[in-house]
């Protein structure tokens, strides 16, 4: 097992290098650069722009810049953001906490609810409950996440039950720890609900289908035939195998943790990574973009690895070599 | 065994299996209606989608009346405008009363009837004396008098000017108190705005100016009866020039309000208006062209890509297969929406709408082809081993012919289902990009772009009808999902019986 993990991690290194280089080249190939937005500004003289270009290192050859960034990145220095004029690592670090709070909550919520409801629907297939859940799932699959966000925002604005944006209240700093926690929870309710509902619906359908497939397998019939209690048949035999495709799916969703909530972050003014990366892309804030690209790639690799390990733990038929 | 089964063709069998799906059939009908809407957008829209009317910023859906003075009539609307009250500074929508027939009792007791268009009567104007007064220490003081000439009154506001000769509006709103305190604190020696106990506006009808045969006639007297202008709603009305099916200029539209005297306050917004006073319904109808076509075109290109890549790599195998599939995996491994934003963001942001449209179609298809091509490859790999392919090879057909005539047609079933289930992804993709301001640009409309206007909390609470385009996205996506689901069942050989 350890050998397998080690091998996967070693393979990941060239993969990450290629992805970071690709992102860098795409950004370079795109017309214009960070300073374009200042070109129309009459208060910026040509000389100032030239000086800025030099200061930001945009006058150097792209390859030189890439390797400079890379040698820094290896030592933990990911360069400076052009726009914020601050180290990229600090910027991202500040935002990662906000995004992780939101996306991990909704990830946990959607998985627990999705798997539970999916299992329930599969066990009670074609019952009224199953039909209601089906309609519910289809509706939430069809609602675009930003529309769901807007609807919840409308609800918040109309009723005043929830804050209409941001992550903390103005007087957050004067609160006790318990109050702070409640305040954060209160701000998080709507964005987390929007994210959870969206992904839960898909997971539920997936789980239902996969469990139904497994329940038709011969070994389930066999287990039932030899008189095994239904509870054990379902939860020990069927579930373990039904969850298999879901785990691969989990690997993918881990990679989406940082960026997946872009719309919701935008709508609820949540100070997270999604918005940071989006703005960086629009402004062509080079190092911020590559670093966040690198982080997503790392998450993708880690997510897939975690999924593979979990798969081996859950499914007895899978052997890691 | 049902006797029919022997005589039905495969197409009929599939259709019969499809009809068993109630939801699928319903969804298909919805889709057909939506696409017809896109096709006949010009005919369906009462207004030009780009036409602005700043008097109607965030106008709510226009109220349709069915009674006039207590009697049932044909449906009609009233002129309306966004009105900022000069006293309370509140912005509201008010409907307007334009008189068209007046019965006036003059000082000497004679009654005269004037009706627009009859006896040479051309227009009515009303000279109104406006008096502002404030209440201090329980006593009313008139502070400002100004005459005004107007040709309309506002419902529920100063319509009493017409039927009583005097209208009085009293308020204790904080804004009014503050404004009047600022202006008159010195004159009345006020110390705080609460000293202004109330503010009132009284409007008194002074005289009526009637333009008759080109001459003006001033009449003093009391209005004893009047009729006001109503604007009937009609089917098949002629208004703005649209292009039927992109080709034939046509002024005919399905419905609209008969604006017979070109009153600029008259609008018929069934779904309200946006920031620029553009008709939300017309824009939704026109936006459907973009939102609905992008899915179809995108899927078409994706499938073409997938067929070429998947077909070739499955049929030839070896190094080609390896290269194609590794490339497909790289594209699949990047989260879709991120790849989309990235591709979009690195390309110039200020393109004309038509180019953006093409660009988005391209980006969406570029992201979508990888997954489909892998499945096609898998199918081709298995079809390749079947006897009829061997037979085709044996009779000496070229590789290309075997692939296009015998192998790929066998993937059609999968492709049709895949396409219907994939289209929602494209619609959502375009909507998302436009919502973020990276897609279709103003003044063109797409459902996502229209929702972008509703991002602001203050806008949503004031103009919640701006959320309607989201409902259209929802319905379309849901319908495609149901149709796809029903198709999958119908095309499944086991369901054909």
From TrEMBL, chain A:
Lineage top rank: taxon: Bacteria
Keywords (A to Z) from UniProt: Cell membrane, Membrane, Transmembrane, Transmembrane helix, Transport
GO biological process, one term: transmembrane transport
GO cellular component, one term: plasma membrane
Pfam families for the chain: BPD_transp_1 (PF00528), BPD_transp_1_N (PF19300)
Localisation: Cell membrane
Membrane-spanning intervals of the chain: 9-27, 96-123, 135-157, 184-203, 246-268, 288-314
InterPro entries, A to Z: BPD_transp_1_N, MetI-like, MetI-like_sf
Membrane topology term: Multi-pass membrane protein
Family annotation (Gene3D superfamilies): MetI-like
Record domain ABC transmembrane type-1: where: 96-311
Family to which this protein belongs: Belongs to the binding-protein-dependent transport system permease family.
Name of protein: ABC transporter substrate-binding protein
């Amino acid at each position: 097992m350890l050998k397998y993990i080690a091998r996967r991690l070693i393979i990941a290194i060239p993969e990450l290098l290629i992805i970071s280089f690709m992102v860098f080249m795409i950004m370079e190939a795109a017309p214009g650069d960070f300073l374009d937005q200042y070109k129309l500004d009459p208060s910026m003289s040509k000389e100032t722009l030239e000086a800025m270009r030099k200061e930001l290192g945009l006058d150097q050859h792209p390859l030189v810049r890439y390797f400079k960034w890379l040698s820094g990145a290896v030592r933990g220095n990911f360069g400076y953001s052009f726009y914020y004029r601050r180290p990229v690592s600090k910027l991202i670090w500040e935002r990662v906490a906000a995004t992780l709070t939101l996306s991990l909550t909704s990830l946990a919520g959607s998985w627990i609810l999705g798997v539970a409801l999916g299992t329930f629907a599969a066990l009670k297939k074609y019952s009224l409950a199953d039909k209601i859940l089906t309609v519910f799932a289809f509706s939430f699959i069809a609602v675009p996440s930003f529309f769901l966000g807007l609807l919840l925002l409308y609800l918040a604005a109309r009723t005043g039950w929830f804050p209409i944006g941001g992550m903390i209240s103005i007087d957050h700093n004067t609160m006790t720890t318990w109050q702070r926690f409640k305040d954060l929870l209160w701000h998080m309710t709507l964005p987390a609900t929007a994210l959870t509902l969206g992904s839960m619906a898909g997971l539920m359908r997936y789980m239902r289908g996969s469990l139904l497939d497994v329940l038709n397998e011969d070994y389930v019939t066999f287990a039932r035939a030899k008189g095994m209690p239904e509870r054990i048949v379902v939860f020990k035999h069927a579930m373990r195998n039904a969850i298999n495709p879901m785990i691969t799916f989990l690997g993918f969703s881990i990679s989406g943790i940082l960026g997946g909530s872009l719309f919701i972050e935008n709508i609820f003014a949540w100070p997270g990574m999604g918005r940071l990366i989006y703005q960086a892309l629009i402004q062509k804030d080079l190092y911020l973009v590559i670093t966040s690209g690198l982080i997503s790639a790392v998450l993708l690799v880690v997510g897939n690895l975690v999924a593979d390990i979990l798969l081996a733990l859950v499914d007895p038929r899978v052997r890691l070599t | 065994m049902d006797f029919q089964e022997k005589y039905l063709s495969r197409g009929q069998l599939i259709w019969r299996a499809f009809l068993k799906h109630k939801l699928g059939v319903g969804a298909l009908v919805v889709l057909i209606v939506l696409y017809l809407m896109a096709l006949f957008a010009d005919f369906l829209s009462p207004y030009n989608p780009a036409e602005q009317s700043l008097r109607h910023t965030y106008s709510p859906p226009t109220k349709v009346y069915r009674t006039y003075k207590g009697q049932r009539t044909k449906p009609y609307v009233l002129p309306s405008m966004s009105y900022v009250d000069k006293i309370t500074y509140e912005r509201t929508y008010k409907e307007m009363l334009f008189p068209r027939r007046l019965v006036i009792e003059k000082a000497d007791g004679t009654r005269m009837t004037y009706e627009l268009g009859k006896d040479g009567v051309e227009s009515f104007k009303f000279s109104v004396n406006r008096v502002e007064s404030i209440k201090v220490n329980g006593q009313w003081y008139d502070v400002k008098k100004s005459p005004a000439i107007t040709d309309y009154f506002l419902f529920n506001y100063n319509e009493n000017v017409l039927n009583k000769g005097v209208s009085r509006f009293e308020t204790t709103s904080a804004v009014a108190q503050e404004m009047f305190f600022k202006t008159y604190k010195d004159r009345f020696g006020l110390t705080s705005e609460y000293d202004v106990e109330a503010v009132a506006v009284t409007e008194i009808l002074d005289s009526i100016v009637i333009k008759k045969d080109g001459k003006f006639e001033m009449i003093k007297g009391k209005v004893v009866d009047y009729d006001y202008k109503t604007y009937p709603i009609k089917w098949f009305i002629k208004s703005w020039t649209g292009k039927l099916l992109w080709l034939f200029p046509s002024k005919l539209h399905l419905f609209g309000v008969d604006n017979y005297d070109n009153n600029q306050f008259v609008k018929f917004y069934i779904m309200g208006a946006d920031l620029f006073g553009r008709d939300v319904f017309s824009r939704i109808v026109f936006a459907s062209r973009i939102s609905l076509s992008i899915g179809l075109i995108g899927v078409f290109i994706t499938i073409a890509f997938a067929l070429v890549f998947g077909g070739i790599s499955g049929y030839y195998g070896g190094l080609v297969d390896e290269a194609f599939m590794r490339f497909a995996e790289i594209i699949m491994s990047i989260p879709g929406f991120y790849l989309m934003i990235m591709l979009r963001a690195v390309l110039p942001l200020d393109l004309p709408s038509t180019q953006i449209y093409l660009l988005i179609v391209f980006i969406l298809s570029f992201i979508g082809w990888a997954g489909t091509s892998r499945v096609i490859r898998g199918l081709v790999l298995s079809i390749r081993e079947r006897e009829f392919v061997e037979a085709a090879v044996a009779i000496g057909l070229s590789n290309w012919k075997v692939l296009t005539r015998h192998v790929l047609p066998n993937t059609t079933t999968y492709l049709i289902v895949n396409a219907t289930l994939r289209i929602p992804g494209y619609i959502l993709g375009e909507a998302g990009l436009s919502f973020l301001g990276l897609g279709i640009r103003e003044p063109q409309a797409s459902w996502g772009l229209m929702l972008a206007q509703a991002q602001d909390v203050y806008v949503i609470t004031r103009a919640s009808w701006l959320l309607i385009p989201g409902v259209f996205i929802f319905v379309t996506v849901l319908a495609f999902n149901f149709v796809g689901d029903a198709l999958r069942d119908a095309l499944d050989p086991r369901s054909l019986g």
